[in-house]
Amino acid sequence: MKRTLLIASLLGATALQAAKPNIIFILADDMGYGDVQALNPKSKIPTPHLNRLAKQGMTFTDAHSPSGVCTPTRYGVITGRYCWRSRLKRGVLGGYSAPLIEKDRPTVGSALQKAGYHTAAIGKWHLGMNMTRREGGKPGKDRWDGDGNVDFAKPIADSPITRGFHEYFGVSASLDMAPYVWIENNHFVKARLVQQPAVKFPGYVRQGPRAADLKFEEGLDVLAERAAGFLKRMAEQDKPFFLYLPLTGPHKPVTPHKRFRGKTGKGPYGDFVMNVDDAVGQVLKALDTNNLSDDTLVLFTSDNGSFMYRVEDEEDHVNSPDKQQYHSKNHRANGPWRGTKADIWEGGHHVPFFARWPGKVEAGSQCTRVITHTDLFATAAELAGAKIPKGAAADSYSYLPLLLGKEKQYSRPPVIHHSSGGMFAIREGDWKLILGNGSGGRQQPKGKAFTKPYILSNIREDQAETKNHAKTKPKTVSRLEEAFQNIHQNEQR
């Protein structure tokens, strides 16, 4: 009898292990809600592969990046913790910056490793690395250009493989920031270095060292091919995997591959969005080819809104002859939402989000609940049966019930939004309170954080955030202020 029970127990454990899904988290760089046809039927930019994800999975219509810019969002994704709790209170890191993720801080990668997953990161890191400096050279700190005094022949002491990933391939930061050199695990890929000159928008890059084999227009293909190779290897192993795939586009430099140039009629940016969609398609094809699709949860989203923003005849930060293509009557990169990348307005952080898991996530379904990218940690941990270490992932709440259509089992505290300039907002249900008097980012008026009059909007009714209800809804303002203070001052779940 005991032997029978033991066998049954072992079989149950084996079945549980086998049930652990593979997880792929694809993070586009600066892709707006309105760049995806499935979310913006008026868009003339073809996105067939993202449309496929929407058709075959669930569309989250109220998903948010935790910040309006790159680095803080990525910190939130990896740690399950709002970045304003770290040393970075505003802005982003540079290509030579020291690691932002604190030493020994648990990450989604390290948690999944302990649960038996093979973990890989392929793409743009932008969370800092400890690069070896030339003898006598000073640290490059947070500079975005130049050579940073880096010895490219020496190993990198602190890279993604010390932050929960078994393997890594990509670049240290955005592809408009030096150094422009591929990194594999803890070393720079050997190649002849050349001096990259500064280039103006839309192919915008800063001056600095570039590996001769790194060509901006081929970057997305290189990452997609790496991801496809990884999936082929994983198909040969009896072990679940987690792939974090932060793409480098459509963030500037806007450098679409030649096979996409002129294809959209929406200028280089439109062609680059199509290029990003193709990279996603290459990953989906690799899943199909290696018979991994049914066992893999694919999540796709963006790190913040698009920088290509124009409404009517307003000028914005993009000074380009092609910007007429992004007049509101031609293309709204951020869809119906007000603002642009960096802003506390919805356009800064209200992003596309699709989830596909055949047989588990209902095809063609839609979810209107509010989620944010810090929630990946708790969601992945629940899927993997992994323990969240004490004190870790303080701002992460699993949306697995939503994926499985069990909405009544889902709950989380209000979501905190954060702009590049340090402006905060809090979102609960239909109501959003901006704790300041402007965008906190790039759009005028930029305003100041914690300076009244605060802005209270009903996002369901007013997507453009044109009506301020703060004077007529003082109790709602007070309730949201108190909720914000409780979350901001307390890191305990």
Task: Describe this structure in a few short sentences.
Helix content is 23%, strand content 17%. With 493 residues, it is an alpha/beta fold. Helix 5 packs parallel to helix 6 (267-289).
Any descriptors?
single chain, 493 residues, alpha/beta, Alkaline Phosphatase, subunit A, Arylsulfatase, C-terminal domain, 2 domains, ten-stranded mixed β-sheet, four-stranded antiparallel β-sheet, 9 helices, 19 strands, globular, disordered N terminus
Helix-strand blueprint:
Blueprint: H1 2-19, E1 22-29, H2 48-56, E2 58-60, E3 63-64, H3 70-79, H4 108-114, E4 118-124, E5 167-171, E6 183-184, E7 187-188, E8 193-196, E9 208-211, H5 219-235, E10 241-250, H6 267-289, E11 296-302, E12 350-351, E13 353-356, E14 365-367, E15 371-372, H7 376-384, H8 400-403, E16 415-418, E17 424-428, E18 431-434, E19 455-458, H9 474-489
Parallel strand pairs: 1-10, 1-11, 2-14, 3-15, 4-5, 4-10
Antiparallel strand pairs: 2-13, 3-12, 5-6, 6-7, 8-9, 11-13, 16-17, 17-18, 18-19
Helix pairs in contact: 5-6
Overview of the molecule:
This protein is α/β, with parallel strands linked by helices. The chain has two domains: 21-409, 3-Layer(aba) Sandwich (Alkaline Phosphatase, subunit A); 415-489, Arylsulfatase, C-terminal domain. Helices cover 23% and strands 17% of the residues. It is built from nine helices and 19 strands. The chain has helices spanning 2-19, 48-56, 70-79, 108-114, 219-235, 267-289, 376-384, 400-403, 474-489; strands at residues 22-29, 58-60, 63-64, 118-124, 167-171, 183-184, 187-188, 193-196, 208-211, 241-250, 296-302, 350-351, 353-356, 365-367, 371-372, 415-418, 424-428, 431-434, 455-458. The strands form four sheets. Strands 7-6-5-4-10-1-11-13-2-14 form a ten-stranded mixed β-sheet, sandwiched between helices. A hairpin with a 5-residue loop joins strand 16 and strand 17. Helix 5 runs parallel beside helix 6. Residues 1-18 have low confidence and may be disordered.
